[in-house]
Specification:
heterotrimer, A mainly alpha, B mainly alpha, C mainly alpha, A: mainly alpha, Helix Hairpins, B: mainly alpha, two-stranded antiparallel ribbon, 27 helices, about 5% strand
Chain lengths: ~100, ~625, ~180
Amino acid sequence: MVTVSMEMQILFAGLLFLTGLVGFLVRRNIIFMLMSIEIMLNSAALVFVIAGSHWMQTDGQVMFIFILTVSAAEVSVGLALILQMYHHFKTLDADALKKLRD
Amino acid sequence: MTTLIWLIPVLPLLSFLIIALFGRLLPKKAVAILGFGSVALSAVLTIVAGIGFLSSPPPEGVILSKIYTWIETAGFTAQIAFLFDPLSLVFCFVITFVGALIHLYSIEFMSDDDGFSRFFAYMNLFVGSMLILVLADNLLLLYLGWEGVGLCSYLLIGFWYKEPDNGYAARKAFIVTRIGDTAMILGLFLLFVSFGTLDISDLMQDASEKWVTGSPLAVISALLLLGGALGKSAQLPLQTWLPDAMAGPSPVSALIHAATMVTAGVYLITRTHVLFMLAPVVMTAIAIIGAVTLLVAGFSALAQTDLKRVLAYSTISQIGYMFLAMGIGAWSAGVFHFMIHAFFKALLFLSAGAVIHLLNHEHDIFRMGGLRKKLPVIYITFLIGGASLSALPLITAGFYSKDQILWFGWSSVISSHWLWLAGITGALLTSLYTFRMIFITFFGETKTEPAHKSGLIMTIPLIVLAVLSLVGGFIEMPENIGPMHLFSGLFDGFLPDVILNERGNHELILQILSGVVTFGGIWLAYRLFYKKSAFAIRYKESRINKFFYSGWGFDRLYALLFVRPTAWLSEIDKKDFIDLIYKNIAGVTVYFNLIVSRTQNGKLRWYVLVLTIGIVVILTFMISL
Amino acid sequence: MNSIFYIAASVAVLSSVMAITNRNAIHALLYLIISLLSVSVVFYILGAPLIAALEVIVYAGAIMVLFIFVVMMLNIGMEEEIEKGWLTPKMWIVPAILAAILMGIFIYVLKVFHTETTGTEIISPKDVGVSLFTTYLIAVEIAGVLLLAGIVGAYHLGRQQKKVIHRFLVKDGSDKKEVT
């Protein structure tokens, strides 16, 4: 159906990943960091699907489903933790969580 | 009889162990009996062994009593063995006999002191170590006794340790004698390296065979041994500790610093006389040191105000005589003077101790006075001791011993007239300061009243020693009075005789001269100190008196030369800059830790950043390969 | 057909960039949803209709909505000042450099390991389902357990701790003890 070369597809996924990475490194608000993690996970799952479609097997899509599951569980738990953090520190600054060091 | 020999040092040591371990549990009487009894028993054994030795001399002239092999390694053997020959007989007799009398005296002297058992323990340890010293058959065992007596001297000088000054005096004694001990151990090393053995008889034989007279090794080892002797015997330049050692109780001063420990140097030199005779330059040094010391100490004694310090300087001076005698080759004369000196000096110290004790620890002679009527017995014994010290002619023992030294000083081949002159000047000084002390202390008006009379236990030793100070000299009398050579006959074949030159027929003149000097000194003391002339009072305030009072400024000199630089060095090393190197290594590590630990700042984004950098680095490496 | 891919791809990348640079949280989340929708289009083009649907339903529909719920609950959308303070331009330098380096590595690798392109065909949901429930059955079960753990964890961790007062103490200020 589509004859885009695989490099371009993977490049697209890589670009998405880098966007998520940069977003994680730059943003200080913890909601945005979680958001960037979602972008990164999404791009990783994209690579699986690309590979699956290249080899014409179902395995890539199956992997995508599992990554999706994991992402969902992780987001729910992460947001619950963010709620705790907000109630404790009254701020969403990720740098407020550095006290464990000492 | 050989079994008796080893008991002589062992008995006091045993009693030391018992008193040291159980002294607090035993009643005072038991401690006293044990302490005095052990030394008295050793004295009896010495006398018995001596009589046996003299009546039937053993084949080689010595008795060797081997106990135990102490060290046996490749190339070096040392035994614990005791050698009994005339020299050690004389020394053992003096140590045990005078020691026993002093122990008896101290039963009453220390009776109201808290450290009664501690005192007797230390004294017995001291007597045991000193006996080991004089009976030792090899130099290593001798050094063991040497160190033992040094230790006991420290312990006993600082006996009343609650006063910090006593601690200083004890430390000073130990450190100054330690300088001598270091020289001595170096001498022992040298001897061992040269001959492979430290056994005294073997050593003397090998030395006379292998070393020529005047060879450098002989001179150096003799000098080193001399250094040790100087330290223990408080001669120039290591004499500064003895006056301060008077901080100890009077029995201690009598036993250690008059009769025994300070004569350990004399014993060492006499015992190894073969070595010293191989180095004539060292003999000359001994004689000169002896002469100079006796003059320096004599002048210093003239200026002292503390009763015991006069006696301390007097001791230094008299040992100077012994060194002078040894330096000119009059070995038996030196030993004879040692024995007589032990008698009268112990007597003087014990009497002085009684005076101080009865006057409630008053030491200053200018605060005593008029004790002639108040303490008659002590006055008489003190007078006898002082007369013997001043060598009052014919009736006191001191005359015979000192006169013999003066005679040999004039007539020996290796002596010179200057040495005789120093000796005779010293005799004048001796009688001067002795009778100054007697006149100021016992005559005149009483400034301090005696608190009580002395008991019998304290007086008996004084009387015995007084008798000995009078009659002890009769065993060795010069030719023209009545030739008696019992004492020097003892040493026939053991110690070489003095070689006289043809000035031998001036003996009578010299004897008369020394008698004149003695009486002159007494008369001078009478004029200056009894009549209290204006000259004496003016002299007391003069600067030269202060110079003599401080012992010719040696303490100040040593403080300037040694104490201050050492204190300065330790002051600049206060931060311990050698240790700083090691501390800085740790400091650098901590510094790096502080830098590296800043990467653990707990921030999530920082961690991911570093993670990313790591990924970049790894990927770069992977694709470059 | 190829152009659809490129358009969808650029929309995805662009909206992702907008999502991470936005100061308003709700706006950023909405941009993210757009990005996910574009990626779903890409999935469809690649011949994976099932997961295209799944992406929209689960990812954009559930997870992002969850995000929006939390943001609304915490009421942080109006804190623009703080966000402006945190997003200074010099914060972007190092991440941008790192991202550029990684991009360079990506491109280099992809150029070196060149592959042939073949045509793709659609992999139907039926095949995926068969594969899930035969080959990857255990993984499905484990995924179920994982979701259970996620539910329990989220419930427990999200609970607010009530201020506990001792049951003997009376609340009106005086602390007379009452024995029940």
